[in-house]
Amino acid sequence: MSGRRLSIAITCFPTIGGSGIVATEIGLGMARRGHEVHFVSAEVPVRLDRATDGVFFHEVRTGEHAAIAGSGTYPLALCSRLVEVATYAEIDVMHVHYAVPHAAAAWMAREVIGPGAPPLITTLHGTDITLVAADPSYLPVTRHAILRSDAVTTPSRFLRDETLKRLQLPPSTPIEVISNFVDAERYAPGPNRHCLRRLFPDLGTDELVLMHASNFRPLKRLDDVVAIFAAVAATRPARLLLVGDGPERSRVEAEVRSASLGSRVALVGRQESCADWLRAADLFLLPSETESFGLAALEAMACGVPVLASDVGGLAEVVVDGVGGRLLPMGDRAAFVQATLALAADEDGRAAMGVAARRRAVEHFGQREMLDRYEALYRKITSTL
Q1: Residue 1, domain member (yes or no)
Q2: Alpha carbon distance 229, 206 (integer Å)
Q3: CATH of the domain at 212
Q4: Which of 112, 85, 102 is CA-nearest to residue 145?
């Protein structure tokens, strides 16, 4: 897309959650298009390649003064850092991901800068609206920050509608749906079971490999993942690969040991990319309580891996039931087990479903198209078309 080079500030969480991954991929994509991108975050985002030309990182440090210890000063520190970066880097647009605290901190930064402050885009990702912003402690400031943003985006129609409802926004509030995306060249099918050999030295060629990847929060329902696998493994040879880290990990590890599943389950922790692991899997489990989009499901589909997911939130906008995977009642472990065993027994059907999943990921959630839409939005609000 032609036009002058932009200087873009991106703020996101640095962890393995979908919001940080998408924000990082947007920034890297813009840098490869010749723009200057400044990441402003507490730590280096998990997928940020700092060797990419045009990419800069600015750490946000909170104060250690005794008077403010434990007072939750990150939003203020982020605000100050955004003011500094916006001023000396001559930022054209600030793009923040997640409502609390990022949108609020960016709005404060614009107030501090005053006339000439860069426009603000807020991208909402899910739990910042469905859980955090719904808390009365945060609702007024979240609502205000969103209304004062120059543009607001969500990755799904579901989250757009939830935002309007939960924040009691006027129905006319402009919220643009720009789907999350996947790099279909990096996330592509291919034989890769060799990466499992060090985890499962006795892995049989006919064993079913199930996989789950997440930030291990309670809403991901890791208990369901383990229970579904245990039922499947009691019927046929199978292994479970768990990728990620988070507050539920220790409890899940203890649950796996207590169920005597240790030799059949591997937890590989936080990974910068899941592509190699996905290529080693036969099916992907995502029995979440809620998902605004389901980036993990999309990455699995791009690798040709059918997804078995809860029929919640925005997942129906990603997974077509019966085509590239299955959408099942949330919390219905028996339904997940039945669907898993049916696909395990139907190798040809599973392969066809994997092909369909890959086709949908490539045709509907391509990286280039979504980056084009973000770049067009940047230029629209900075009046540089």
Answers
A1: no
A2: 16
A3: 3.40.50.2000
A4: 102
Q: Which two structure tokens, joined as six digits, stand for 270? A: 């936080």
Asked if 283 and 299 touch (Cβ cutoff 8 Å), the reply is: no
Residues 230 and 346 in one domain: yes
Give the DSSP per-residue string, 218-287. GGG-HHHHHHHHHHHHTTS-EEEEEEE-STTHHHHHHHHHHTT-TTTEEEEE--S--HHHHHT-SEEEE-
Given a contact cutoff of 8 angstroms between Cβ atoms, the answer to whether 339 and 359 are in contact is no
Same domain, 219 and 265: yes
Residue 233 lies in a domain: yes
**Model confidence, pTM:** 0.90
Domain that holds residue 139: 7-181+366-381
Of 200, 9, 251, 226, the closest CA to residue 121 belongs to: 9
User: How many domains does the chain contain in total?
Assistant: 2
Strand pairing of 238-244 and 208-214? parallel
Q: Are residues 23 and 80 in the same domain?
A: yes
Is there a single domain that holds both residue 123 and residue 230?
no
| Element spanning 307, H or E | strand 307-310
Asked whether residue 371 falls in the same domain as residue 353, the answer is no
Q: Are residues 265 and 291 in the same domain?
A: yes
End-to-end Cα spacing for the chain: 10
Q: Over its length of 385 residues, how does the chain's per-residue pLDDT go in tens digits?
A: 567 899 999 999 987 778 888 999 999 999 999 999 999 999 998 888 878 899 999 999 886 654 444 546 889 999 999 999 999 999 999 999 988 889 999 999 999 999 999 999 999 988 778 776 667 788 888 889 899 999 999 999 999 999 999 888 888 899 999 999 999 999 999 877 888 988 999 998 889 999 999 989 999 999 999 999 999 999 999 999 999 999 999 999 999 999 999 899 999 988 878 899 999 999 999 999 999 999 999 999 999 999 999 999 999 999 999 999 999 999 999 999 999 999 999 999 999 999 999 999 999 999 999 999 999 999 999 974 4
